[in-house]
Amino acid sequence: MKKLIKFIPAILLVGSLLTAFTTVDKQPVKCLIQLTNYSGEGAYIVVSIVNDKANYEETLYVIGKDSEWYSEITEWWKFYGKSRPNIDAISGETISGGERTLSVLQIPKDKIDNGYSIRFETSVEDKGYFADDIQFELTSENLKAKVEGKGFIRYVRMLPQ
Amino acid sequence: MTISIWRYSHLVLALVSSLFLLVAAVTGVILAVEPITYQTKGYAVHDLEDVPLGVAINALKQNYDEVLGLEVESSGFVKAQVLTMDLETLDIYIDPKTGGKLGEVEERPYIYTFATNLHRSLFLKSVGRFFVGLISLLLFIIVVTGLVLLAKRQGGFKKIFNKVQKDYFELRYHVILSRWFLIPIIILSITGVYLSAEKFDLLPDSIEVPQEMDVDHSAEVFADIQDVPFFKETTLDDVRQVEFPFSDDPEDYYRIALSDREIQVNQQTGAIVTSINYPFTVLASRLSLVLHTGEGNVLWSIILLLASASILFFMYSGFVMTLKRRKKGKVSIKMPNKDECEYIILVGSETGTTFDFAQRFYDGLSKTGKKVYLAELNKYTTYARATHMIICTATYGEGEPPTNARKFSTLFSNIKQPNTISYAVIGFGSLEYPDYCKFAIQIDALLQADSNFTPVMPLCKVDSANHETLANWVDQWGNRQGLKISLEHTYIKEVERVKIPFELTERTGLNVDDTFLLKFRPKQKITFTSGDLLAVFPDESGLVRQYSIAKINDEVLLSVKKHEMGRGSNYLYALEVGDVIEAAIDVNAHFHFPEKSAMAILIANGTGIAPFLGMLQHTRQKQIALFWGGRTRNSSLIYENFLNGIITTNEKISFMPCFSREDEKRYVQDLVREQQNVVLHTLTNDGTVMICGSLAMQHEVLDVLETILIENTTLTIEELQNKGLIKTDCY
């Protein structure tokens, strides 16, 4: 019994190391988001992967670092607000009307061509919220395209690296 | 009472905004530290103007597979967003010449994001932003009202940086610091308002129209970006931000934000494809942000830090001042009706020290809950409920009453009080004069003789307004009434004089009346005019003696009567030509010659003629009559040099002397009565009467003038005095 207890830390260590390194293969995709010429505050933008039932799988990118506004992005907030994982590494500064931002999205390869979609949600203080400013299926073909937005986003361009 | 409106708004605005202002100031102090610590990272590139944009872009591309953006901060740091080998984005500070990494961009410390949030919106989102903007505006108004108060305190906008009068710590430093932080706080508040207004779309809309440029399609295509003319000529100091082309496609452009415009540039030819000039609102907003946050400038950040901290001090000291003022000021605000008061304080005072004591005594007594009435001796009347009377009076000349007490003796004999009154008299004077407190003695005698009045305390004589004597008296008097009266320290602010050296250039000996003339030349540049006073300091004791002066050819002329015991006159008499004394000019604005009046009557006796000698010199077109009273013909000889030249050359000026010991033995008031047609003509045509000399003469002359006015006009002396048409300067 004592011997077994001694092994516990070792097992835990090995276990955690194993999980840490079982990373999913990712596809970096350069992504340009161009906003329309609206007037007002900087836009909060969330890029996420949703499955075929429109449930959130993963947050890819968040533009806007001031977390007090996150609850205004209502759909995503239902997913993110529960657990609040650390998203510092995947967040950038807000941009305003007419501006654009370049970023690199790390898309898990197993989500491409597998029925998942990518969603761009936008929210601007006092101006409104778009749950699906842009949403399209994650296929290898779509990832090279330029897609027009419905709300604050004029278009998004992607380029796999 | 306009000052109270300014003070009231200053205070009310400060009170209303205090909580928000407190939050804004504290977070402001924290936020001001950020640019200072940021700058100490030392990534600033100092020769931005020598680095072409092409060199920087090339250097980055050499070092990294992919570059997303480049930013030149106002701190002088060059920041790049690059892709690493693992295809992760990374924000780094770089050396633009080599593309080498200087450091990684760190997450903004939580304390600053927290403080920014609180500072800008109080965690209340839009509502909070609105409040903060409003408070900024209020702060601006507070500063403006404060500026007005400051100017009033210092005696005019031009004198704001003059010496601040000594006072308690909070008041003194509220004034001193406000002068230094006025401008930074104004800048903070205006930029704060601007930044908030921008958030609420309150600024005029400015749609930027991109200007399509004619693109030369045959332009040369370069292989190396460093050779492209645009990238060669543009240096980093003019660049704010560069967004790199999305791909190598020539249709994907560089988007470059320069200091004054935003352009899109072809990556191969360097041709500018579109250009948008920033509208004024954008430039103003950028300037506001830099001024408000201090980013990129350590010195300005430190000033902002101190300014924010000073707001905290102003709030603290302002409230201390308010509390003190409330404590002190409450009672002076409203005096009960004269017929409701048990205690009557009557004052005879010319210089204010007596009045100052009366006011303090009034305040102290009122605070015990008693109803107290304070008035000038001239306003003596019946008091229905009065049981106590306290008379404070100074004495002038040879036992003369002060001007606001000259009618008291007559009034007293005509008015009968309904109650028996316990009284006390305090005489103010100086032991230097032979007739020490003589008028107070007269009043005391007057009251003693009246059966309606019983003394509670013997007459108290006070030398040079000695505080101890007064406090002592107040204690004793209070004890008899069973009252504990606290006496505030004097309300009078000590005048700070600037002493400058004066050289004696000419003097006469004594004439038949022991009078002599002195002429001084100021050894420093100073402005003064006839009618001002020369303050001389006979010894080290702080004793001051003032003499009315004439300005003659930029020199100061004094006429002095030598008194046997007079410290001032003996000190001056002992001077010899060439001696230099330290003295000061006291501006005596109420006795300057009126510029507007077309005619004037100048009335003087004895040495009182001095200022008039100067006034006659520099008036040309005015009808002036100078009445002068002396003892003998010989008395006037001393002034002949000054008078003859003027009278013989200017027929508009007439000189009428009279002598009390010779000829018809007339006094100057007799002359006034005799010349009443001239006097009436002058006064009814907005001319001015100026009186200078002994107080006794002044009273006699005013009595004569009063009689003349009553008999011939509806004007009163008070009315004319208020209008500045009767001016007096007597001693």
Automatic annotation (TrEMBL), chain A:
This is DUF2271 domain-containing protein. Keywords: Signal. It comes from Maribacter sedimenticola. Residues 1-19 form the signal peptide.
From TrEMBL, chain B:
Keywords: Amino-acid biosynthesis, Flavoprotein, Membrane, Methionine biosynthesis, S-adenosyl-L-methionine, Transmembrane, Transmembrane helix. Its EC number is 1.16.1.8. The keyword Aminoacyl-tRNA synthetase does not apply. SUPFAM superfamilies: Ferredoxin reductase-like, C-terminal NADP-linked domain, Flavoproteins, Riboflavin synthase domain-like. Signal peptide: none annotated. The chain crosses the membrane at residues 130-150, 171-195, 298-320. PROSITE patterns: FAD_FR (PS51384), FLAVODOXIN_LIKE (PS50902). Residues 497-594 form the FAD-binding FR-type domain. Residues 343-482 form the Flavodoxin-like domain. It is an enzyme of class 1 (oxidoreductase). Pfam families: Flavodoxin_1, NAD_binding_1, PepSY_TM. PANTHER family: METHIONINE SYNTHASE REDUCTASE, NITRIC OXIDE SYNTHASE-RELATED. This is Methionine synthase reductase. It comes from Maribacter sedimenticola. The lineage of its organism: Bacteria, Pseudomonadati, Bacteroidota, Flavobacteriia, Flavobacteriales.
